[in-house]
């Protein structure tokens, strides 16, 4: 209604000014006839304005119907109908052409991104095969190599697996139809399984680990939670003290929450870096973090948001230095 009034408001002023001028002329010519002309002019003006408003409203409804039909199915046929309906209106024609050009570009970009994501996922699954073969060969030929060589190769395999998983989860981050598998599972057992996988990684970096795992169950996607924990663990190993590295992993259950804490005894996060710690590509101002990709914690934050898990930077922590990250699962 407001739009109609804005479009027909000028007609109201035209009728008003015309009536005033006509009444003024009538008063000059024949003042006695003024009392007969006023009701007639008012009635005529009201009828004319209502008829004009109804006509404008009908035209607006036609315009809206034409635009809605085009937006519902913006193909070449509807584009031709739209241009024919607004024939002579260069603004509408230009807007329609620009819309179609932009829509085509968006669809083409989306198709390329989908193909790229599918290729990355296929590549990760393919590369897992030789990694699994390497793990099998290591186990079968463990006695044929020195403990040092065996540990080094285990570490390399673990790094390859971690990097492949990170690529896979990054490619799936913005998937249109994510394949979540929500189930009830023990968070403590999930953590233990992942810690066992990371034992070569921990030994290679001479990390001492302390586990405080209380029995606690959560309802979430176990595969994603396991990946999130692996990123926190990898991050803790990377930034633990280079000489006497220590990591604390804690699982505790509260009244309505279950908390998973991973912290290390490395250098603390500078105050100016804390607001950006989970941003994509952020490595911080400290020299030790300049070689990082800034992707691991970013993925943790994004997937936590999808699963309804809170991610908190823990400060203070049990160690004198370092930092911790807490995942809070709501029951």
Report on this model:
The protein has 2 domains: 2-102, no CATH class; 182-330, 2-Layer Sandwich (Heat Shock Protein 90). The protein has 9 helices and 7 strands, in the order H-H-H-H-H-E-H-H-E-E-H-E-E-H-E-E. The chain has helices at 2-29, 34-72, 76-85, 90-140, 147-171, 187-197, 199-204, 222-239, 296-307, and strands at 182-186, 207-213, 217-221, 245-253, 257-264, 310-314, 324-330. A hairpin with a 3-residue loop joins strand 4 (245-253) and strand 5. The mean pLDDT is 82.
Structure at a glance:
With 331 residues, the protein is α+β, with helices and mostly antiparallel strands.
Provide the CATH top-level class of the largest domain: Alpha Beta
In round numbers, the mean pLDDT is: 82
Compute the number of helices.
9
> Which of globular, elongated, flat, extended, rod-shaped describes the shape?
elongated
User: In what range is the share of β-strand residues?
Assistant: 5-15%
N- and C-termini, Cα separation = 49 Å
Radius of gyration from CA coordinates: 35 Å
The H-and-E topology, N to C, reads as HHHHHEHHEEHEEHEE
Secondary structure elements and their pairing?
Layout lengths: L1 H28 L4 H39 L3 H10 L4 H51 L6 H25 L10 E5 H11 L1 H6 L2 E7 L3 E5 H18 L5 E9 L3 E8 L31 H12 L2 E5 L9 E7 L1
Structural key phrases:
2 domains; 331 residues; 9 helices; Heat Shock Protein 90; alpha+beta; elongated; 14% strand
